Structure formats: C-alpha cells, structure tokens
Amino acid sequence: MLRAVMCPDCAEPVHADDLFCESCGRDLRLDRDATRATASPEPCVRCGTPADGESDYCSGCGLRRNDGTDHVEIDLAVLAGVSDRGLVHRRNEDAMALGKLARGTEVIAAVVCDGVSSVRDPQLASRSAAETTLTGLLGAGSGSGSSDELIRSSVATAAKAVATLAGSSLRDAPSCTLVCGLVERSDDGTAAISVGWVGDSRAYWLSDAGSRLLTHDHSWAAEQIAAGVLDEETAMSAPMAHAITRWIGADGPAEPDVMTFTPQTPGVLLLCTDGLWNYVPDADELAGLTLPTVAEEGPIAAATELTGIAIEAGGRDNITVVVIPVSPDLPRSTA
Amino acid sequence: MTEPPRFTVEVDYNRYLAIDATSVDAIVTVTATGDAPAATSDALEVIIIDCSTSMSGNKIRSARQATAAAIAELRDGVAFAVVVGTQDARQLYPDRGVARADARTRAEATTYVERLAANGGTGIGSWLKLTGQIADGFAGPLKHAILLTDGQNGERAVHFDAALRSVVGKFTCDCRGVGTDWRVDELRTISSALLGSVDIVADPADLAADFQAIMGAAMGKSMADVALRLWTPRGASIRFVKQVSPTVEDLTGRRNESGPQRGDYPLGSWGAESREYHVAIDIEAGSIDEDVLAARISLVTAGSDDVLGQLLVPVTWTDDTALSTRIARGVAHYTGQAELAEAIQEGLAARKAGDVATATARLGRAVALAAESGNSDTARLLERVVDVIDAPSGTVTLRRSVSDADEMTLDTRSTKTVRVRGAEQ
After folding, report:
1. DSSP state of A161
2. CA triplet B273, B276, B278: central angle to 5 degrees?
C-alpha cells in the first residue's frame, strides 16, 4: 500500500487510501519517472545568451546546452537507476524509465535503452523506447496474457513510436537497444521476473546463492562465439565486436528475446548498458560490488556506486544502471 | 485547392573537426514531393521573342513555331502574354494585361505569332522591363518567362544592368540563345539573376521541342518563392552558398538578412524536384569534445517564417584524426563539379584570348575532373574542343578548328553537374 500523505505531482495533501489525487487527478498507485530532456533555463555557459527554450543549442554562439540528461538519478525507493554521460561522449544517448504500480498485483518495471551513436538523434530513440515500453509494462495485471506476451507487445509499441522519429528518410534512422525487467509479485509472496531485450544491453541476476547473466547480446561478437566460429578473446577484440545485430528503429529487426524465472532466494535484478558491463562483465564480480551496498544503503546508492566505478575506469561510453532488489521471502509492502 | 509540395532536407558532412579547425562544408539536398501543379489562376507565363533583323529567315520561322508550341502547352486558365522584342519592347498578345489560356485565346495568340516579322535592333533590358510591368499587374505567385534571342544586346551596359536589377524577384526567366551570334555570359547573367536556366539551341529546327519542354516544366511548378534560410553562430562567416545540382550557381551574393545571425537565399519556384546546395562556413574554433551548432538550415516560404523543412549541422572537435580527416563524399564530389565548371569557363576564355598554355591546362583539368566524376555529358562536349590524349591525367591538346556552336554549347552547359555516383537514394 502506498502511504502518500501528499501528492507527488501537485503537493496537495491526500489520504493514505486515496486511489487518485483530488486536486490534480494523479493515479496515486502509480509512481514512475524517466530520462527526459528539459530546456535549461540557465544562460549559455560560454557566451551568456539566455535560453530560448526552443533549441538544444545556444542561439548566440551555437554551443550545445545541457538538456538535463547528462546525469539522471531516479529513486523510487524499491528500485532506482542512474544514467550518466560518462567522460568521452558529448551527450547522454542512454535513457531509462522506471515505474511501480500497486494495483491488484504489485508490479515493478524498468527499461534501459542505449542510443545507436552512428545514427541521427539516437537519444530521441532511446528516450521514446524507454518511456513507451514502460507504459506497456505497467499495464500488467489490468489485462490477461503472459508476461512474455506483455513484453513483446510493449516492445512492439515502442518500436512503432521510434520508427515515427525517422521521418521520411530511413537512412540513419534514430535507433537504440533495449533491455527491460518486469517483477510481478503475487499475494503469496513469490515474485516472477521477466526480462526482454533487443541488442547488447544486459540484465543480470545477482544473489548470494548464485549470480548469472540473464541475457545474451545480439551482437556480432556474441553470435560468432555462440556459433563456435571464434573464441571469446578473438571475437571481443575484433573491430566489429560490438556491432549489434538487432535494434529498435525504423530499419531494425526489433523482435526481443524474452526469459522468465522465479527466484527462490533474495537478490537484485540489474539492468545496464555496455557503458558498465564493458568494465565489469562478470556476474559474480557485479554481485560483490552491488549486494552489500543495496543491503546497507538501498538501490540508489548501489546504482550510484556502479556508475562511479565505470567512470573511474575511463567512462568511454554512456553508463546506465538500474537496480531492482527482489525479496521473494519478505512481505510485499516495501514502499 | 491543390496540395502544396512537401519538402525534405538532408545533409552530408563530417561533423568531426580537428583541434583548431574552423571550416565546415555541408551538402544539403532539398527534395520536394507531391506533383500536384499549382492552381492555374496562380500562374503567369510570358513568352519574349527576339524580332530583331538578325532573326530573319529560318530563325524567325522556327521562333514562330516554337512560340506556337509553347502556347499549345499552356494549361487552361493560366495567364499568359507574348512580348515582341526589338530595340524596344511591344506587347503582341493580348493588347494589354494578360489573357487566360483557353482554346480561343491560344488560337488567337497563335494567329498573331504567325504574322511576326523580324525587323529592328536588340534591347533586352527594355524587354525585361515590359515583362516586369506585366508581372506587376498579375496577382498570382508563380510568374515565369521564356526569353529567346539570337544576338548580342545593343543597349548600353548601365541601361541594361539597371533594367535587370529592376525586375529581380518579379519573375523567373529561362533564356535560350538560338544560333551562335549571341553571348553566353550575357544570357547567363540574366538567367542567373532571374533564377532560371540558360541553354543554346544551335539549330533553329530544335526550338519548338525545347520551348515545349520548358513550358511543360514551368506548368509543373507549384510552389513560388522558396528560400534557403541559414542561421550561423556568432563570429561565423559564410564562405559561400552554391547550388551544385542540377547546375552550379553561386548564391552567396543573393543573401537577404532575415534576422539575427540569419540570412535568406531565394531559390525561385519549385515543382516535384530535388536540388543540392554546398554551404561552406567558417566558425570560431571550439575546444575538444565541445558540441556546437555550426548552422541551422531551413527552407522557408520567401518573406515569411513559414518553415517547410529544417535540419541542424552540429560539429564536435576531436583529437581523433581518423574521425576529423574524413571528407564527406558529397562535399568532395561537388567541390570537383564546381571546379569543373570553373575550369571550362576559364579554359574557353583563355582560348578566346589566344592564351594556349592556360587554355590547355584548364581544359585538361576539366577533362580529368569530368572523367573522375563520371560526368560523361560534359566529357563528350569537351572532346569537341580538345583532343584527349589521357583523360585521368588531363593530358590534352587544343583542337585547331572548333565550331562556334560546339564552343558555346560547352560554355552554356559547363555548369551542369552529375550526382554522386552510387549514392544511396
């Protein structure tokens, strides 16, 4: 049960049992947030020209304005995420969307996307795909159908939304990877985890009882290794190792792979882009870095710490990390 | 109401600059789709026929046929007029103002045209001024003229220049020179200022087909007065703005300031077609990884803020030379095509002046550029002026006897370009 005493949107007081805010109509059982660009109200850092709110670039000297996405933190208490530009890229083309819903069965969902940097406006693709997929996933419980179907239909809707960004030209159409996690808790306390992905963004299950990578990359290197053509070291050192073979975009094969499992022990579902796993690919190593921090300081601290590790290691790429603790043995009200 | 065309704007450039680099070159492709022609009430056509004494004989007979062919192409409802040019200008049809094309007016105009005789001088400035007056009296947006002449202008330069300046923006004009006694630079000046084309019709017998084609294209235009709007950051300077396809046309001097750090370059009227522009800008150097907008390029309805299409040209400075040394294919190609046009015009001018060394060098360079870029039409025209020994290296000798028609054809068509070979569409 959500124990809001004020509406998170309009700050008007609400009753703990209210389903909607009386003032603004917000659904109080739903809490969600995502990477969103905001036109900076600050004057240009280089020439001082005031922001016009119309463009990503200063209307005086042309310098790109910080649109608020260089560093994003989202803390919904029961799950949290951090997305950072890193040290090398000029903007953050990753995006994330996180949500929780206390309606019937409790649902937690998160989506992480990595814009394909060789195309036009990849950041628009990743933001749109993350938000649209999350909206689909939070429809869980309201309809029938399996989690597998829900993920596929949510990703298909997101792919359509991203395809519209291409405009009239398919060349270099905005596109991105996607990994999403859906945690559905039933009344008996068991939690079902479903993960869907397109491209090389990853999901890990981290637990003291055993940690593992849940996804397999849709990338050139992974496919060479899987097909037995190259060993891991040769494949990963090839120039096209990271070339993805599936993506969300007007010109892409966007069909996700989906896996589902029911954890028997507490653990953490970790979603991340290659900005993190390029530095720390190993599940056990990630568990060692993540689980103690989650236990002591909560998911936002763990996401912040993992992001910091990737930046310390060089921050060659945008980094996005979402941490979702799952405790099947505990009562379900954790909010 | 007919549907206006839809515009798409695409860009080819290298967004990575080396440290301290300031030059940004971009090829902008503007494509208009939707082939619904304009409402007939929006369009005016004026046909200007040279009736100077030199037109006597074959030429005036062909000009009559060509004008009749053009009149036959007029869609019902389009406004039109025929102007006869000698040392003065006189309106042949209708008596004043414009006629609306229908079976009766087309037949009437044709009857008048068939009686045309050649007798008088050549005063092109006065022809343009009369056409300007007719255009002034017409309310629709699409105003187009065809100008046919066979000789050199007899007016004093100051008179002609003033006349041309006074009609810029009032109508667009395609110019045709018949025979070989006219001057390419004279007609190019007019067509360039009036956003039209120039070509040679060496054989008067070909005029009718050519006029028919011009009129057919003019009838397909549906959007008048489009402009390229260019925003650049403070401290930037525009090196040039050139149309590079289908022909080379320098637009740099046509800029009208339209706002802070912003200028508009008029592009004339559009049908369903695609044109390419080379925009070359110098901006202030930025620091590494800085992301700066070098230009915002939009297509607007001239004199308004109605944006038909837009794109951004951001750049980033990098110390990765693998990125910064890449040259966009379109930029390399059209830089070559513009140089090709220049080499031909300079080579022919040197040849005329008797400077064999310069003519051989420049026309040789043109042969090499035409071969390299696959501009086979221009390569063929060059072969009528020079003997090619080795095309890739541009080794040529000047031909001793060259017909005036071949030389003038090469000159007028020197600005025609080809698109990038194997370009994705």
Report:
1. H
2. 165
pLDDT tens track of chain B, all 425 residues?
455 678 889 899 999 999 999 999 999 999 988 766 667 778 999 999 999 999 998 889 989 999 999 999 898 999 999 999 999 999 999 999 999 999 999 999 999 999 999 999 999 999 999 999 999 999 988 999 999 999 889 999 999 999 999 999 999 999 999 889 899 999 999 999 999 999 998 888 888 898 889 988 888 888 878 999 999 999 999 999 999 999 999 999 999 999 999 999 999 888 888 999 999 999 999 888 788 999 999 999 888 888 888 889 999 998 888 888 888 889 999 999 999 999 999 999 999 999 999 999 999 999 999 999 999 999 999 999 999 999 999 999 999 999 999 999 999 999 999 987 654 33
B350 touches chain A (CB under 8 A): no
Residue B407 phi/psi, 5-degree rounding, is -65, -45
CATH code of the domain occupying A66-326:
3.60.40.10
Domain ranges of chain A: 1-34, 66-326
Could you give the CA distance from residue B141 to residue B42 in angstroms, rounded to a whole number?
6
* CATH code of the domain occupying B330-413: 1.20.120.1690
Ramachandran angles phi, psi of B326, nearest 5°: -65, 135
Phi, psi angles (nearest 5°) of residue B346: -70, -40
Put simply, whether B233 touches A (Cβ < 8 Å) is: yes
Cβ atoms B276, B245 nearer than 8 A: yes
Residues 6+ apart with CB under 8 A from B213: none
Q: B181 burial class (0-12, 13-18, 19+ CB within 10 angstroms)?
A: middle
Say if CB A64 and CB A51 are below 8 A apart. no
Report the alpha-carbon distance of residue B263 to residue B285 in Å, rounded.
Answer: 22
3-state percent helix, strand, coil for chain B, nearest multiple of 5: 35, 35, 30
Chain B residues lying within 8 Å of A167, measured CB to CB = 8
CA–CA separation, B167 vs B127, rounded Å?
A: 11
The strand pairing partners of B84, in sequence order, are B49, B90
| Chain A residues near residue B260 by CB distance under 8 angstroms | 59
| Contact (CB, 8 A) for B154 and B251 | no
Taking any CB pair shorter than 8 Å as contact, residues of chain A touching chain B are 47, 55, 57-64, 88, 90-91, 167-169, 171
Reported ipTM exceeds the 0.90 cut: no
Contact A57 B8 (CB under 8 A): no
Amino acid in position B22: T
Q: Which tokens is B23 given?
A: 């030059």
* Rounded Cα gap, residues A98 and A75, in angstroms: 9
- Nearest residue on chain B to A47, alpha-carbon basis: B234
The DSSP bridge partners found for residue A99 are A32, A109
User: Cα A82 to the chain's mean position, in Å?
Assistant: 9
Parts of chain B belonging to CATH 2.60.40.3670: 6-36+224-321
| CATH number, span B40-219 | 3.40.50.410
Q: Who among B8, B232, B292 is closest to A63 (CB)?
A: B292
Virtual torsion, Cα B183, B189, B191, B195, nearest 10 deg: 170
